[in-house]
Every structure is written in structure tokens, then in C-alpha cells.
């Protein structure tokens, strides 16, 4: 009672503020605004405004090719830094490229090709200064499993290769289209939790695949799920090669030790960056000297000398394989985009510059389209390589050019050196890189903050490990979407209470010291009112009112006279929602309870007005704040005793 | 400036309220609460609480069979009313039943069977007092087109018939399962707008199909889309029968006139209710006397005498047809549910009693399962028949029993009378019923209130008319869902301003008389912060801040010192959203702008606390209301001049 007394004298119904209907807007204007917010939220054309045509041309060129923006101010000091970082990432790119190409069941030299042309394209078109371009394990695995379902890489290597190029082409087309059509936000639908689970699952799968190399097995399952792989490994225990396993675990130990060391002392980042190349050199020397290739240690073998051959004519656009290529392209393209853009954004935030997601997508797309025509497969900006690039002190995308030149020299002169490189070393390199993706700490963090995100993460992981990479992804995205839909379908409703000595009303569960107002039930609806929840809300509001009346009846104090709906958090309403409010109004009238609205937002107010609901409920029963609504109810309760009011509202009902 | 001065003396930072973290809840308790709200929002077990076992049994029986609830208090007066309304709807049910069975390409007698058993089941299990059970045109058409795709009704009528029973069986199983699994809310996903467009589209398609009967054509397309039907009609103009057309339009005119009359004078509801049966009798007499059946007027022909034969053994559960039956069952089942439940609810609201959606679904499901075993096809509660029932003054479901008895008498003794009934009369009956479903006024209403709902409605209509019933439905549901997702993916953000002489802050577009606070930017985010929008919100907040800084720079007055985010409408947040807030905080720190939060709700506050974001931002920068947040900022601005503060926040950044 106390707070009601407090509220009462401080306002009166006359002076209270009115909830306003926003000034009417022409339909086309509001449509234009909404389309702009949906597709151009970053306002990319802002800088073009009020510029002469020649300037517009230069700006446009700089927009598509950021190199024209930063190249003029490039200095020798930048070059020094970029040279060092470029050489460092080249030494990482060569062994990683070969390893991932093997993972994709493609000729190892493709890994080198893919570290030559795409980085050059990105250096011209990309806007990140820290991204290092290259192939990634997850996309390689996906290529192997999705194209492998259609064509066997061992039986028909040519067709398999051409399909990989075609998939890369479609990935590029898809990426560039997303960027051009301003649909970059589709990537946002892969939530943080999905990506953590998915990446960890993919890493697990990739590590399991390496058992083939480490155990020196000749035959291996084409499936990627845990059960098939384990069955394949343990059904041929007699084929295990101890020489291979010893080498593998030895190098893995070496790689992990150097990584641990570099992590502890970031100044020595180059130790872990150089470790893979060192392993390759050591491994090759060892095999060459001991002739281990004749004792069951498999080696890379002949690598073709020379730069990327053209592959445009190899693209396959004929019917039975086209669908596979497009499907593989789209899925790998999205995954690659998600990783590349997240990596670019993180480093940009670190160094405080801006990355335009849609522009980056065009750059990635162009890079993969050009790549698919020059014997490369899918590339993006892998996290590990970019981190090394960043730690090595890169300043601009020139470090990518330096890396490309390093790979070029390798391709032209050094490929014979890899003849004796044992496959098991490549497996060790992959395993050591993948262990970093098993981010169990992030999963624990998700559990502690948001259980639902943890479930999403876990389903993505389990889906990838026990079914397949695509299924895991689909499950995780589906669960995430269901969560969004559930938020709308089952909106939260709260009872509000008065915070002592104020006109503020808040959720009684969050603020236990609030007090209720006798005869008045205040409900907050915390989501837009749409068709998907209008049925639920009708039931829920009725239940709140039932419960309140029961409570009041048992206490015998007073009867329920007013229900105030706080609409502040109702961002929008559709015709089903308005229908629901009309029903609630009718039901309340019949029960002799007055329905009052507080703080409807512009959009809702506009629609309620058009649907004549404001007339129906009465303008004076829509208030600007809950406090004023309560004050008005309180004023009426004190001025007219409950009973006549009930009759009044019944009379109203008959009109 | 004025309002800032006004706000400043009225509060100080010490006295302001704190935003509270809600008391911690055990995980299992909150999980249980959420599950209950999702699946048991109507708390169906409430009445069972604290009752002895015998009472619980009675209540359970009454829950499943509401007839036990109302039968004991049934009076003779009720019977009089129910008898009149039952006879009225029987006279409507007989010709409509035969017509719709023809529409479904099923033997006409099935329409009578379906008006005998299912109404009896519903009378025991249903909770609506006004619903009249029967077959509906849309579901009949869907059955014809979906099963017709698999089996030709003319070439293999037996299999077609059995598949129709099987589809009805699965529709019933699906409906009952939805009810038992408490998934009734799935029906809510068919929005009001979808249903209007869909119904109008289906009515158009059904009317087009009647051209066959009215023009007396022998051959007709199996497709339902506008283009195919028009091509079929105009490719055989030489086959048109003028006798048939004259009869058809004559009866159509008669039916529409009686309907118009009854609509103007509701007391004479029976005029339009009796009109179809009158048409059938008149038409049959005419044909019998003129022998028109020998001059191109097609008649129903032989109708088998006797009650429903059992059909349980006819259900087809074998492989090639099972999928079709299940698909047809699910789609027709959902459509039938949507209509039946909406109809039940509308009349219940009129008479002020309660309908439990999930319970109704179980009743509909049982009715169709029993129906499928007794030679009936899909039934529900059609709007037209229920409206006649209501107008005729029905009191309880006994009117359904009276109707069933009327149909039974017809089946036992009167079927030979329908031998000479011309098909064209049935077509006229269908067309006249369907014209009422073309609710163009509702579509105009949608356009004036909510453009998006209008688009949904129009796409459903166009999809049904130009493609197929299923495609129209899928398109409309997909667009509706995209709207929900867009609401979350592109949340509204507003600038808030101070309402004069108050501490209230509201959207400046809705309340143009608000004034801004110098040096402080107040933003409201009007949706939950989820992965799907965190990228967008990061960009959008940055753009608001850019715009504000530019505006301040050009006016040269002051610099931006504070950004207050009003989180009152942010119903929830996930880990991606928290990550976004952390990024915004970092960026703001770097720009020397302080981030302040106002009014986070319980759920958000809890998660921000767990993620240590509250520590990060500082408890003193999270306020209960925007007003208090502004007062605190204002206090700081007056106490410390801007410059030291900027350095301070930069120093903060380095920590």
C-alpha cells in the first residue's frame, strides 16, 4: 500500500504523458529505410557522396582493390617487416600446403600451387593487413569426403581433380555473390558456439584420419565418422608399421614442444613457425640416408617442377557431377568464409582498423575463382598461419606477396627435395595443427555462461564426429534457428512490481524488494507479438490473471481491477498479434477487469492505431510509462470504488 | 541543455538504484520451468492437484471425454435447441458431403459415411459446443491432388480409395500425436495472414475445378494450377454443354440469393441452410422428369444403401504408397486442425467458454483414426457448417449426434433418391460455398495494417493458384519464418531523447518533442542479442556513434563522452552477443567514449555477470533506468571536465 500512496499524490491523470503515434511515413520511404538496414547496414557508399566523378572512380578502384589505397604510402620499413613475416609464413605454408593437399586426396603439389596465386590475388583485393592466405584442413577434409562420395580419388584421379577445381570455382562464385548481393549476414548465422563445436569436431575427424599415415596403413575407410575409422584401424592391426609410428610420434613430440615453447615465450614465435619445415627436412634426410622408404615408410615421391598450369578447361559443368561440385562449393565456401572473416576481423580489432565483411567476401570469391583456373583448390585465411604472420610483425598484405614468391622459388627449383619426405611427417604436422583447434576451454566457458550455446556446440561436435561434417553443421544451424524461433514462440512474461520510493516498475523476480499494487496486475511482455506466439500469450496472460485473482481471493483483501501490459519490449506486432490483443481485451471486459497499455513503441503504436485498437481500448488507457499507468489506475480506484467500475466495464462490453 | 540542468540536481550518483543480478537458480529448476512454459503453458494438470485418486480418475475421464462433464446436467430445453440445429446441419451435410466426396474423386457415398461416424466420436471427445463435424473442400481437393499424383482414381479406384483411408488414418495419428506430445503450438505457425491467403487460393482452385461439372466436360486436367485448368477448359470448347451450364448457373444464382437474404436477415438462417438440399431435390426432380441424363447432364447414379462398412483391413502400409499416404495425411491433417481449432476457438470466445487446443487435437485425431477404419475420409470442423449450427441455436455437441442420426436415416433408406441428382448441382453447391472463402476484405485490412502480412497472404494465394496447394503453403510458412528471423537478424535501434520535464527517455522519432543530452548518446536495442544479429549490432552501434561524433564536430559544441545502451528490450543474450558487447566496449574505450548500460533484464544480467562483463565495464556503469544513467553521466561531466576523462579512459585501455 505504501508505494501506492507514494505514487498517488505525485501525478494526476490530467498531467500524465501520452504515448504518441509516430508521425506517418510514406510507405516507400519506410520500405527504403528497411531495405537499407537489411542489406546496407554499413552504408558502404557513404564516402562516395558529394565527390566529383574522377574522384568517385579512384574511390571505386580503391574500394575493389585496397592495394591502391595503401601502396602509395608504402615505406621501406614496412617492407623489412613484411619480408621477415613473409619468409616465416612461407616456411610454414610449404609443408602445411603439401599436408592438406594429401588430406584432400589431391596431388601434393596442389598445396604449393594454392599458396602461390591466391595470396597474390588477396594482396590486391583484400582489406586485412594480417591475414595469411592458404588452404585449411577442414575445407580439405570436406572436399575429400564430399567429392569422394561421388568419385573415387584412387580409381579416377583425373575426374576427382577436375571436380575439386570445379567445387573451388563454385565456392568462389558463391562467396563473391554473397558479397555483391550484400548477403554477408548469412555467415552470421554460424554462431560462435556452432563454430567452436564444428571446428573441434572437424579437428577430431582430421586427427583420426591421420592414423592412416602414422600407422603406415595402405587401406583406409572413406568414411570420416568415429565408428568407421576405429573399425578400419583395429580390423588391420597386423598391418601397423612400428617404424612409421615411431617417426610419427617423434615428430609430433618435437612439434608440440616447439609450440609450447613459443607460446610461453612469444618472442621466439619463429621456433614453432619453422618447426614444420625443419621436420620435413629432418624427415627427408633420415629417409634418404636410411632408405626407410623400402621398409614401409611411405614418401611423397615425384613432385612436378614448374609453376601452376592453367586449369580453366578442366572445370566440369556436366550433369551427373555438377550438383556435387555446387554442393561441395557452397558448403566449403561458407566454412572458409566464416573462418577467413572471423580471423580478419579479430586482427583488425587488435590493430584498430576496419574490415568490411561484404568486401572481404568479394576478395575471397575472386581469389578462389582465379585459383580454380590456375590449378589451386579452396583457400581462405587460416587462423594459425595468420597468427604467425601477425606475431612476425607483418605490416601489410605484402607479406602474402613475399610468401607467394617464396613458394614460387620452391616450385621452380626445390620440388625434387621433397621426394623423400615421409608422409608420416605430414601427418604429424596436421595432428599438431589440429590439436590447437580442440578448444575445450571455450566449451567449458559456454557451459558456464549459456547452457543452450553449449548444447549447440556439443551437437555440432557430436554430429561431425559420429555422422559427418555436413550433418554436424546442419544440426548445429538447425538448433540455433530453433532457439531463435523458440524465443519468439515462447516469449517471457514477467510480473512487475514497484521499486520502493520511485515510480520505477521492474520484474519482481529480478528485484525481490519490489512491492505490488493492490488491485492492479502489471505484466511485461518481452518479445514481439507475432502469429507464432499470439496463441501462447493469450493463454499465458489469462493464466497470470487467474493466478492473481486466486491469490487475491484467498487473501480476501481486494479484487483485481486493472491489468497493465508493459509493451516497452514488444518491438513489433503483426495482425495475428493485434487479433490476440483484441481477444484479451474482450475477455478482460467480460471479467470486469480493465486492460491498460504502457509504453508501446512507435511501430506497435502505428499498427494499433491503424487497426482501430487504440479507439477500442480508449486513448486514455495507453500510457507512456508503467508508473503513470499505475498512477492513473490508482487515481480511478480512489475516486470510484470498485463495484460501480465493474458495472461500468460491463456496460462498455455491451456497446 | 535545459533538460540536462533539470535532471542534474534531482539525482546524484550515490542515491541511484542499481540494476540487480537475479538470485541464482539451480540449473534443473530453471530447465524445468522453461520446459513447462514450452510444452505446458496452459497448465492442464492444475485441476488434478490435491485430489483423491477416485476424483482424479473421474477428472481424467472427463478430461478425455468431456461428454461426462456436461451430460449429467443436460436438460430437455437443450435437447429442443440441439434437435433443431442438428436437423438443419444434417440438411446441409448431405448435399455438401456428396459434393466434397466428388471433389476428392471418391465415391459420393463416402461423404455421407463421413458425416455419420466422426460426428459421434467428436460429440464424446470434443470440447466445443458449436462445432459441426464434416468434410471440407480444401482437404478434399488436397487428397485428390496428392494421392492423384501417385494413383489414378479412374484407372485404379480401389487402390485410390484405400490410400485415402490410409491418409486419413495418418492424419488422425498425426493430429492425436501433436496433442499428446503437447506440440499444438505448431499450428500457431500458420499465421492469420497465411490462412486467409491459403483459403482464398484453395477456394479459387476449387471453383476452377467446378468448371468441369458446370460445363459438363468428360475429360479434365489433373493439375490444379490456373494455367493448366484454363488450357484444359478452352482447348475443348466444342465439348461444352449448354444444358449443364444453364442448370449450373441457375442453381448458383438461387444459392447465392438465399445466402444474401439470410445474411441480411439472420433470423432466416434456415433459408440458406436448406437451400443446398432444396437444390438437390429440385435438380433431381428436373432430371427425372425431363430425362436430361440422356442429354449430356451427368448424374450421381447408384448410391449403395446401408451404413459404413468397416475399412480397417483396407489400410495400405506397403512401401511404394506409404510415403504418399503419410505426406498427404500430415499436410491435410495440419490444414484440417488449423481450421477446426480456429473455428472452435472463435465460437468459444463468443460464448465465453474455454477450448484447450491440445485436447481438441486429440479429439480430432481420434475422430479421424476411427473414421479411417469405418470408410470415412478426413473430417474436421468446417466454418460454414459450424456457423449454421451456431445460428440455429445449438447448445451442446448433441446437435452433432442429431445430424449423425439424420445422415444414418438417409444412408439406410433414402440413398436411391439421389440417383438422378445432377452433378452440376453439386458443383453449384461447392462454388457457392467457396465464394465465401474469397475474403478480399480481410486482405485489404492486412494491407492497411501490416504490409508484410499482406505479402505473406498474397504469396500463399499466388502459390496455391499458380503452382499447387502444397507449394503455396510452404511459401507462406517460409516467408513468415523469414520475417521472424529478420526481426532478430536486423533488430531496430533507436536514439532516445529526454521528454521535457521528466526523467523519461524515449525514441526521438516517435516523440519529436524530446531533447538530446549534450555529450551523451542514448541508444535503445529492441531485440535479443543473438549470434544472428551481433555482427549487425556491432556495425550499427559504431555507425550511430560515428554519425553523432560528426554531428557534434560540425556543430563544434562538445565531444561525445558517453554512450548509454538501453537494454530494457533485450530479452536475452547469447555468448556471441556478449562477445559483441566486449568488442564494442574495447572500441569505445579506444575512442575515449565511456560505455554505460541501462536496465538489463534478469536473464541478460545473469549472463553478463557470469561472463565477467559486469566487472569489465564496472558495476557503477550499469544503471536501473536511462534517466539515472544520464544523471550519472551528467554528474561526471560537471565534476570532471572532458579532457582528463579521455586520458583516464585511455589509461584504462592500456591496463
From TrEMBL, chains A, B:
<dbReference type="GO" id="GO:0008271">
    <property type="term" value="F:secondary active sulfate transmembrane transporter activity"/>
</dbReference>
<dbReference type="Pfam" id="PF00916">
    <property type="entry name" value="Sulfate_transp"/>
</dbReference>
<dbReference type="Pfam" id="PF01740">
    <property type="entry name" value="STAS"/>
</dbReference>
<feature type="transmembrane region" description="Helical">
    <location>
        <begin position="330"/>
        <end position="350"/>
    </location>
</feature>
<dbReference type="InterPro" id="IPR018045">
    <property type="entry name" value="S04_transporter_CS"/>
</dbReference>
<dbReference type="GO" id="GO:0016020">
    <property type="term" value="C:membrane"/>
</dbReference>
<feature type="transmembrane region" description="Helical">
    <location>
        <begin position="193"/>
        <end position="211"/>
    </location>
</feature>
<keyword id="KW-0813">Transport</keyword>
<keyword id="KW-1133">Transmembrane helix</keyword>
<dbReference type="InterPro" id="IPR002645">
    <property type="entry name" value="STAS_dom"/>
</dbReference>
<feature type="transmembrane region" description="Helical">
    <location>
        <begin position="396"/>
        <end position="414"/>
    </location>
</feature>
<feature type="transmembrane region" description="Helical">
    <location>
        <begin position="362"/>
        <end position="384"/>
    </location>
</feature>
<dbReference type="InterPro" id="IPR001902">
    <property type="entry name" value="SLC26A/SulP_fam"/>
</dbReference>
<comment type="similarity">
    <text>Belongs to the SLC26A/SulP transporter (TC 2.A.53) family.</text>
</comment>
<feature type="transmembrane region" description="Helical">
    <location>
        <begin position="458"/>
        <end position="486"/>
    </location>
</feature>
<feature type="domain" description="STAS">
    <location>
        <begin position="510"/>
        <end position="633"/>
    </location>
</feature>
<feature type="transmembrane region" description="Helical">
    <location>
        <begin position="131"/>
        <end position="148"/>
    </location>
</feature>
<keyword id="KW-0472">Membrane</keyword>
<dbReference type="InterPro" id="IPR011547">
    <property type="entry name" value="SLC26A/SulP_dom"/>
</dbReference>
<feature type="transmembrane region" description="Helical">
    <location>
        <begin position="421"/>
        <end position="438"/>
    </location>
</feature>
<feature type="transmembrane region" description="Helical">
    <location>
        <begin position="160"/>
        <end position="181"/>
    </location>
</feature>
<protein>
    <recommendedName>
        <fullName>STAS domain-containing protein</fullName>
    </recommendedName>
</protein>
<dbReference type="InterPro" id="IPR036513">
    <property type="entry name" value="STAS_dom_sf"/>
</dbReference>
<feature type="transmembrane region" description="Helical">
    <location>
        <begin position="240"/>
        <end position="261"/>
    </location>
</feature>
<feature type="transmembrane region" description="Helical">
    <location>
        <begin position="268"/>
        <end position="289"/>
    </location>
</feature>
<keyword id="KW-0812">Transmembrane</keyword>
